[in-house]
Amino acid sequence: MSDLRLLADGVGEPAWLRRSLIAIAVSFMAVFLLLPLANIFHAALSEGWRVFLASLHDENAAQAIRLSLVSTAAAVLISGVFGLAAAWLLGRHKIPGHGFWVAILDLPFAISPVVAGLMFVLLFGLDGWFGPWLDRHNIQIIFAKPGIVLVTAFVTFPFVARELLPLVQALGPEAEEAAMLLGASPWQTFWRVILPALKWGLLYGVILCASRAMGEFGAVSVVSGHIRGETMTLPLHIEAVYNEYQFGAAFACASLLSLMALVSLALKSFVAWRAQRELESQ
Amino acid sequence: MSIEIRNLTKRLGGKTILDRVNLDIPEGSLMALLGPSGSGKTTLLRIIAGLEHPDEGEVLVRGEASTAQRPQDRHVGFVFQHYALFPHMSVRQNVAFGLEVKPRASRPSREVIRARVDELLALIQMDSYGGRLPSELSGGQRQRVALARALAVEPRVLLLDEPFGALDAQVRAELRQWLRRLHDVSKVTTVLVTHDQEEAMEVADTVAVMNRARVEQVGHPRDIYDHPASAFVAQFVGQMNRLHQVEEGTAFARPHEMELSLDASEGEAAQVVKVVSVGPLACLRLRLSSGLELDAHLSRERLALLEIKEGDHLFVRPSRVQVFADDYSI
Fold it and tell me: Per-residue pLDDT for B327 more than 80?
């Protein structure tokens, strides 16, 4: 009885305590999250619209934006396709060492991006395992665009796979079996039955993957080689111009990157909302 | 299509799921595979469909081995217990699926598909539901759509895996009768897996009773009830009183074959423990002086005639006793 009283008292804490807790939480969020974000945009525009637009139209900045978009698209494609395959393999089939492989999926999250970059340098760099062979065939990966795409895909790989694994498990084999018995080929079953069932999860994973890929710094920094106008992504470009005391340009590009992050955040919320609604209607 | 099952054995992780099963399913018949869960009936159905592969033995469809065929090529209609409708497709799209995925050469035109879907929706009495999603249907409606979807491709064999298992009693009874009528019209060889003996008895031409990886008895529902081949079948199909040990095994008698009398010369003394008289039959629970409890069913007229109440003493004698060897356990 006394325990129950204690519990009830805990639920209905005094009003002053509740208000102070809310005040602390809200001011923390304002100071730590909203203020810096708003300040980026403020700083970007502090030297006027003209400087802002010029900084984005700068040749090197434009190249960095293009490379960021291209490498993000490529990384999303790679981790989307392989993430789906991995989720399918682990969600549907009992392969030997199942738990180990599921844990391995998270490896890119656990490892520092810088280390991830170094791993690829050790594999594909001139002195790496495949370096001499690649060199003989005139293929350059490290300090070139393919390296940037590879490490970005590596770092973002878990997003899609992690998102889809529970969905694949929940889908179960029955819909697939039904499709097969109705005469559908594996290809038709995939496109008409399985993919539509996973579409929201896939989209959610892709958005997470894209927002991370756009902002990736550490791993890309190791393999990029920082060649101006060639292997700079947007985050690398921002750092470079910041180090050269071009604050206006740095903040302009930073605000663009922040804007992309905000868009992906909005998309993510929208997809989560749609998926939830669809789930509730079933 | 006639289906012959020859010496089918399936093992899974050291456990024998099917043990040298033989079964003939005649063309155009409706056979029920009846058994408790874990008896292997669903695995047998899935092997016929090609969803699982036997370790030994084969399935002959109209005399031809189908073991190497892919599920896609077997022309089998399959209905799952939990419907397995495609959740993102409308009722129409679900029913049309099997026709839409046919290779271009054999795919019917769009108009033909539409007409066929209309026809099937009329058959399942869901004409006006074509645009709905499966999530907007009741369980019974979903299962009817699943049946229509399976029938759309004109299967040679229709396989139903506990199709009414997830439905309410009343919907079950309706769908059961509907399935029987459908079969009478379509004459597609049909195999129905069920653990519900009433369902098997009501719907099927032939019942195969399965227990512990084997088929224990195959026959007409009435024959199985009247002449069970084993103690398991006797107790699984209908109610059975277990009487006493005899030299050859154990003696059993059906509750409706228990004769009651107030005359001491007519059988063993018993006390009435409970009387349940709901519906046309009265069900009595009796306790013999040995402590053994028996069930007896009699008409309510007879109950009234004998003026039996709970606590009364009377005399009981089975009118027919069946004896089975003791080589089983339930």
Answer: no
Cross-chain residue pair B86–A193, CB shorter than 8 Å: yes
Name which CATH class applies to A48-281. mainly alpha
pLDDT digits (tens, 9 = 90+) for A109-129: 999 999 999 999 998 988 888
**d(Cα B169, Cα B140) in Å, to the nearest integer?**
11
Helix (H, G, I), strand (E, B) or coil at A230: coil
Helix segments in chain A, DSSP class H:
2-11, 15-29, 35-45, 49-57, 59-92, 98-104, 107-110, 113-124, 131-136, 145-171, 174-181, 186-189, 195-215, 218-224, 234-243, 247-281
- Nearest CA to A116 out of A216, A205, A235 is that of A216
CB contact under 8 A, B149 and A188: no
Chain B closest CA to A49's CA: distance in Å?
Answer: 48
Which of B70, B80, B135 is nearest residue A178 as measured by Cβ atoms? B80
| Residue in A181, A197, A281 nearest the CB of B49 | A181
As a whole number of angstroms, the distance between CA A162 and CA A78 comes to 15
Residue A65 confidence (pLDDT) above 90 = yes
Residue of B131, B155, B165 lying closest to B145 (CA atoms): B131
**What residues of chain B lie within 8 A of the CB of A185, using their CB?**
72, 101
Q: How much is the pTM? A: 0.80
What single-letter amino acid sits at B192?
A: L
d(CA B87, CA A100): 33
Closest in A177, A183, A193 to B98, CB measured: A183
Distance from CA of B143 to the nearest CA of A (A): 13
Going from the C-alpha of A226 to that of each of A148, A185, A255, A258, B312, the distances in angstroms are 11, 48, 21, 22, 101
CB pairs under 8 A between A and B: 67
- In one letter, which amino acid is A205? G
Q: Is B247 exposed, middle or buried (0-12, 13-18, 19+ CB in 10 A)?
A: exposed
If you ran DSSP here, which 8-state letter would residue B109 be given?
P
Q: Is the pLDDT of residue A1 over 50?
A: no
Contact A178 B84 (CB under 8 A): yes
B12 lies within 8 A of chain A by CB:
no
The ranges assigned to domains in chain A are 1-44, 48-281
Token output for B285 = 């629970």
Express each pLDDT in B106-150 by its tens digit. 999 999 999 999 999 999 999 999 999 999 999 999 999 999 999
Taking a C-beta distance cutoff of 8 angstroms, is the pair B253, B320 a contact?
yes
- How many angstroms separate the most distant Cα atoms in chain A? 80
Going by their DSSP bridges, the two strands B56-61 and B3-12 should be labelled as antiparallel
Report pLDDT digits (tens) over A148-206.
999 999 999 999 999 999 999 888 899 999 999 999 999 999 999 999 989 999 999 99
**Quick check: A232 and A64 in contact, CB under 8 A?**
yes
